[in-house]
């Protein structure tokens, strides 16, 4: 089980996206293609709900469901749950929702206490870990006729479906368009390079002054370095054997550059970085105006737009020799293997991904819906934010990097990574020392994963 | 004065209402006692079980809350350890310390399902994100919190319901706050463990009731309650005395039934209020059923009473009707199929009316007879008058014809009639009676001329006495008719004198002796026989058997009659 890289190529992703988002037009030059392409044929919701597995007895069932996300996602999901209860009065939900931070810590504690939720929002980084420990139920019986098989494959481990992908998202960047326009800067684009990135930083900092910063310092997030290594043509940070494959020079180069930007006040200073909470109305450094730009997934467009409507512009991660961003299935629904209500849970997930009404309620809060039918039905009613989000994906998609689930045993590595990089941020250590520490930590993980 | 209803009111009325009253009284009494006893039963058993339940809840609650309190101790110790290890002069230390504290406290939240979040008031950088489980706030914030007075003077306290911001919006929580002290015994942080109110309430909520439960801490402060603001602090303060006096008890105020339990080994008091109406619903239903049955019974009894009254009263009514129509009751026939008291009553009534009818008939006969007699007597009175008047006319004719002897006789006869006709049946003076017999004697004198010698000896004393009239004339007539019949001469002596206490009248003649045998036959109507018997009867009727007359031979050779009468003095006014 050590090797769990998904055979999920960019090509496949593109095929999928082309199929899913024909309406939006993969040719982004054709701006109005979205509305002209597919005359909406809103699939009847009854048709899709009748496809649910016949697990619906009238016995009262209370399903516990947990997810992380932004307030926008919380609201949409709770509304969808109410909708489901209205359709199935015997099924009620107990919800547990929070931000990303601490989500998997809590889940770990709950599993050890035997009180984990029935339905769990799962992240690609943890799928292999949880399946490896036998904590997730086989959900292969769910109807996935309208979902691209290659996308489904991202939720499979050894051919068995354990995690139902819920949406496709692209990694890119968000910037405060109002500030960029006001300062008269060249806005970041989907085509920009690292040089553009550094130049933008310098130019913006010069105009912003002392207490404002250009980029939220996300160098402690493994995602950022992953994108950097990709963009430098050094490939994925894990190799085929499921081992860490960080290129030392590239990493040191990146960390040194970041320290330099930090010193110049282009990146947020360490103590400000420490208080940053992504998409928190007060604590997100881009939202609260401390910085201009940060990385963002396309499925967060709606959330950040909701916080400050019509404020933000979007860009790809900077390119080096290659593109840095990638497409990923934003998140999954998994069913707790310990649950007493796996059938009901599966019926709910079936409804969640296939029902048009559910799709309308949820919108793009978890990325572009995976059911082509749902996308078709939704397309005519896309909001501006939705369209932006779709546009975001389409622009990142053409040269997006391959997305690979974290290998088993490495789910928590990103937390250790963060701690080590934070030391650099606070000037407690040099990049070289940090690299050694990182390698030591990696060896521990590797040894543990090998057992 | 209240009159005896059995004597004054109509029988059917008394019968029916008496019946109905007694039944209603019984039913009412039954319903009342069954209601009071069953509701008392309900109250005592409810109180007992609720107290038991509350005690159980109290224990369960205490277990949970004690674990929270203990967690807070560990959390505050760990907090102090982390802070003293990383005093926080440099910012990285502070970030690391905060991260470590967050991760530790996260684990408390994750591992204790009833915890919603933990708030840390300290000098660490403030960071409040609703997406997080652990929030850092500044120490300066504490005095601004609504619960500040609760913690101000104590090291730890339960904070009653207040609101915090979460990713579900403003969420009501109940919290346990504990101050963190360092080695120098300085208070420098406050850890607040938040429990969601619904979770907390589920701890104090009995599973199967919708009664509202309130939780008070040891000072009587209302921590929370399961129903919206049904208990107020003021209300609870008024209960405190009772709760203090009795750790477990119950009380009823109108519709409210309160049960409380203050556990010995914890500081919590649970107070449960339920609706008395709801509790006693079943016994109320029973009561209502009884009441309904009672009313039904009353109705049945009313009908039965009406029926019985009718049946019993009917013969009385018939009797009354018959009595009312009595004189002409021929139309009303009393039924003859009653064999009981009513039958006897009817028979008695029949007998009574029969007797009365008989009497009426008799009376009618008697009346008829009397009328007849009166008529006869009137007729009899007409005859003497007619004779007297006729005699007078004959007298006149005799005078015209020159027949002076006949005239004289008619005149005497007229005088006798006159005497006889006046004062009929009454007593007359002896002199008048004597005048009467003298008339008769003079009448006979005219016929007998000198052959008749008579003498009337009347004492002056006797003259004034009274006697029945026409007593003497029949004796004298008898003497002439029988004694002197066929004789040429006659002598008659009448002696009237008082003898002792009697008036003695002796009429003696010298005619033939009549003898007693001659007097005996009383049946004869001829002559003196009828007259004497009449005299005897009249004397008997007037004076009784002590008086009368007797006939005997006279010393003059003939017959003598001795008549004895009582001495009756002339009344002064006569």
TrEMBL record, chain A:
It comes from the Bacteria. Pfam families: SBP_bac_1. Residues 29-56 are annotated as: Disordered. InterPro entries: Bact_solute-bd_prot1, SBP. Keywords: Signal. Residues 34-56 have a biased composition (Low complexity). The keyword NADP does not apply. Residues 1-22 form the signal peptide. SUPFAM superfamilies: Periplasmic binding protein-like II. This is Extracellular solute-binding protein. The lineage of its organism: Bacteria, Bacillati, Bacillota, Bacilli, Bacillales.
UniProtKB/TrEMBL annotation, chain B:
SUPFAM superfamilies: ATPase domain of HSP90 chaperone/DNA topoisomerase II/histidine kinase (SSF55874). Residues 471-566 form the Histidine kinase/HSP90-like ATPase domain. GO terms for molecular function: phosphorelay sensor kinase activity. The keyword Acetylation does not apply. Residues 373-452 form the Signal transduction histidine kinase internal region domain. Pfam families: HATPase_c (PF02518), His_kinase (PF06580). This is Histidine kinase. PANTHER family: SENSOR HISTIDINE KINASE YPDA, SIGNAL TRANSDUCTION HISTIDINE KINASE INTERNAL REGION DOMAIN-CONTAINING PROTEIN. It comes from Cohnella lubricantis. Keywords: Kinase, Membrane, Transferase, Transmembrane, Transmembrane helix. GO terms for cellular component: membrane.
């Amino acid at each position: 089980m050590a090797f769990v890289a998904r055979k999920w190529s960019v090509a496949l992703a593109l095929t999928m996206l082309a199929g899913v988002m024909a309406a939006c037009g993969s040719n982004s030059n054709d701006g109005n293609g979205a509305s002209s392409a597919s005359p909406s044929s809103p699939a009847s919701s009854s048709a899709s709900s009748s496809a649910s597995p016949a697990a619906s007895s009238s016995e009262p069932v209370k399903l516990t469901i947990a997810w992380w996300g932004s307030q926008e996602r919380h609201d949409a999901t709770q509304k969808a749950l109410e909708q489901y209860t209205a359709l199935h009065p015997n099924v009620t939900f107990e919800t547990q929702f929070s931000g990303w931070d601490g989500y998997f810590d809590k889940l770990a504690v709950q599993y050890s206490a035997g009180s984990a939720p029935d339905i769990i929002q799962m992240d690609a980084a943890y799928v292999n870990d949880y399946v490896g420990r036998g904590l997730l139920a086989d959900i292969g019986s769910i109807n996935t006729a309208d979902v691209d098989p290659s996308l489904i494959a991202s939720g499979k481990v050894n051919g068995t479906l354990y995690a139902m992908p819920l949406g496709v998202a692209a990694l890119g960047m968000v910037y405060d368009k109002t500030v960029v326009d006001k300062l008269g800067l060249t806005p970041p684009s989907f085509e920009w390079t690292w040089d553009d990135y550094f130049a933008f930083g310098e130019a913006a900092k010069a105009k912003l002054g002392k207490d404002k910063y250009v980029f939220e310092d996300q160098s402690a997030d493994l995602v950022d370095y992953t994108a950097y290594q990709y963009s430098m043509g050094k490939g994925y940070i894990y190799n085929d054997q499921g081992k860490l494959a960080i290129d030392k020079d590239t990493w040191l180069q990146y960390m040194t550059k970041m320290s330099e930007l930090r010193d110049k006040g282009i990146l947020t200073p360490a103590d400000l970085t420490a208080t940053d909470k992504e998409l928190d109305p007060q604590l997100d450094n881009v939202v609260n105006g401390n910085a201009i730009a940060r990385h963002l997934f396309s499925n967060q467009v709606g959330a950040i737009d909701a916080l400050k409507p019509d404020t933000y512009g979007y860009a790809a991660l900077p390119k080096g020799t290659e593109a840095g961003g990638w497409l990923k299935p934003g998140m999954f629904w998994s069913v707790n293997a310990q649950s007493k209500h796996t059938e009901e849970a599966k019926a709910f997930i079936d409804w969640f991904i296939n029902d048009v009404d559910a799709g309308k309620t949820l919108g793009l809060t978890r990325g572009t819906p995976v059911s082509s039918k749902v996308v078709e039905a939704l397309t005519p009613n896309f909001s501006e934010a939705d369209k932006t989000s779709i546009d975001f994906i389409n622009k990142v998609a053409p040269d997006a990097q391959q997305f690979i689930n974290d290998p088993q045993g490495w789910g928590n590595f990103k937390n250790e990574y963060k701690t080590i990089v934070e030391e650099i941020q606070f000037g407690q250590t040099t990049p070289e020392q940090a690299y050694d520490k990182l390698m030591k930590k990696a060896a521990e993980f590797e040894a543990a994963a090998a057992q | 004065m209240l009159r005896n209803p059995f004597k004054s009111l109509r029988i059917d009325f008394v019968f029916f209402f008496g019946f109905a009253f007694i039944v209603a009284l019984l039913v009412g009494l039954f319903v009342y006692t069954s209601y009071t006893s069953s509701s008392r039963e309900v109250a005592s058993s409810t109180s007992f079980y609720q107290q038991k339940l509350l005690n159980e809840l109290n224990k369960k609650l205490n277990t949970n809350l004690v674990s929270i309190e203990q967690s807070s101790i560990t959390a505050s110790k760990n907090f102090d350890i982390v802070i003293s290890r990383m005093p926080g002069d440099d910012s990285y230390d502070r970030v690391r310390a905060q991260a470590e504290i967050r991760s530790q406290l996260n684990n408390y939240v994750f591992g204790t399902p009833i915890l919603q979040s933990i708030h840390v008031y300290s000098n660490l950088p403030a960071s409040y994100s609703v997406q997080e489980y652990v929030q850092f706030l500044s120490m300066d914030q504490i005095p601004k919190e609504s619960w500040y007075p609760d913690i101000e003077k104590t090291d730890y306290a339960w904070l009653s319901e207040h609101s915090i911001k979460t990713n579900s919006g403003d969420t009501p929580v109940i919290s346990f706050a504990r101050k963190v002290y360092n080695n120098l015994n300085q208070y420098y942080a406050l850890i607040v463990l938040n429990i969601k109110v619904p979770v907390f309430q589920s701890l104090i909520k009995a599973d199967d009731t919708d009664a509202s439960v309130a939780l008070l801490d040891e000072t009587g402060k209302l921590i929370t309650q399961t129903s919206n603001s049904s208990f107020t602090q003021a209300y609870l303060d008024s209960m405190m005395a009772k709760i203090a006096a009795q750790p477990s008890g119950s009380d009823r105020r109108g519709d409210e039934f309160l049960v409380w339990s203050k556990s010995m080994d914890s500081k919590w008091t649970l107070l449960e209020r339920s609706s008395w109406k709801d509790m006693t619903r079943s016994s109320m239903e029973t009561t209502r059923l009884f009441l309904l049955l009672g009313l039904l019974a009353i109705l049945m009894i009313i009908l039965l009473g009406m029926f019985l009254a009718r049946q019993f009263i009917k013969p009385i009514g018939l009797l009354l009707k018959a009595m009312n129509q009595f004189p002409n009751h021929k139309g009303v026939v009393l039924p003859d199929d009653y064999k009981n008291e009513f039958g006897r009553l009817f028979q008695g009534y029949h007998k009574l009316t029969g007797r009365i009818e008989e009497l009426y008939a008799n009376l009618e006969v008697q009346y008829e007879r009397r009328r007849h007699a009166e008529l006869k007597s009137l007729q009899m009175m007409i005859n003497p008058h007619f004779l007297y008047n006729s005699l007078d006319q004959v007298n006149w004719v005799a005078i015209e014809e020159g027949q002076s002897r006949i005239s004289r006789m008619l005149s005497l006869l007229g005088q006798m009639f006159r005497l006889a006709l006046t004062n009929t049946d009454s007593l007359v003076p002896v002199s008048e009676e004597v005048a009467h017999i003298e008339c008769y004697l003079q009448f006979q004198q005219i016929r007998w001329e000198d052959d008749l010698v008579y003498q009337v000896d009347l004492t002056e004393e006797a003259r004034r006495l009274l006697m029945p009239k026409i007593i003497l004339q029949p004796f004298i007539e008898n003497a002439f008719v029988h004694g002197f019949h066929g004789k040429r001469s006659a002598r008659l002596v009448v002696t009237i004198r008082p003898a002792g206490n009697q008036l003695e009248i002796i009429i003696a003649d010298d005619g033939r002796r009549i003898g007693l045998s001659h007097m005996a036959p009383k049946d004869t109507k001829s002559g003196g026989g009828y007259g004497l018997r009449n005299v005897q009867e009249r004397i008997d009727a007037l004076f009784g058997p002590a008086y009368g007359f007797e006939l005997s031979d006279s010393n003059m050779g003939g017959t003598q009659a001795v008549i004895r009468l009582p001495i009756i003095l002339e009344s002064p006014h006569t």
